[in-house]
User: Fold this.
Amino acid sequence: MVTDAKQHEIKVAKGQDLPIVSDSIISADRAYIDYKWLYSLKKLRVSFVTLAKKNLKYEVIGQHEVDEKKGLLFDQTIKLTGYYQSRYYPEELRLVGFIDPETKKEFVFLTNNFTLSAYTITQIYKARWQIELFFKWIKQNLKIKSFLGTSRNAVLTQIWVAMCYYLLLSYIKYQTKYSYSLLELSRIFSEMVLERISLIDLLSCRHYNISKARKPDLQHSLF
Assistant:
């Protein structure tokens, strides 16, 4: 869903235009936490995984063993005790504690899914973060820091063009086993977009010595 910057995302999530299918899983940032909305998802048989707020008030009513080798800290069944929280979401929830082995950061996930393993719950949220990184890469490298048009169609068209460009670069990198990064490849293509040079020669270049790949133009004199 595409909206202007003034509209908060939770309003879009709670709106009628966002299709939500039963038995699906929604992963959202803690900014989306609205216990009325989360309980409405539960009634629709939709699972959610989000980051628990630091001021969450609850009591632990059950615990499960966890595999500490996978970075799991705890797997608890809880009930909310806050005055409004407990009324907006009166049923049991699940808290999963986790330490990311790469960043060593500690996370606490809140979910209504009691079927999947605790580790799977952590990986669902990690998969969501990969989407964040994907769009961050697009913004940084594919020049979508500003839009050429402001209409819905113009914005979506520019995003789709950028994504197609990203996929083409990824495909070329994969097929040719290009050893450098996509950023490096993107810089080379932007430098040589109007040059007539074979792809193989282009892939052997680096962006800082790209001038060596250019064929010298014939200089014509006027007499």
Residues 152-176 form the longest helix (25 residues).
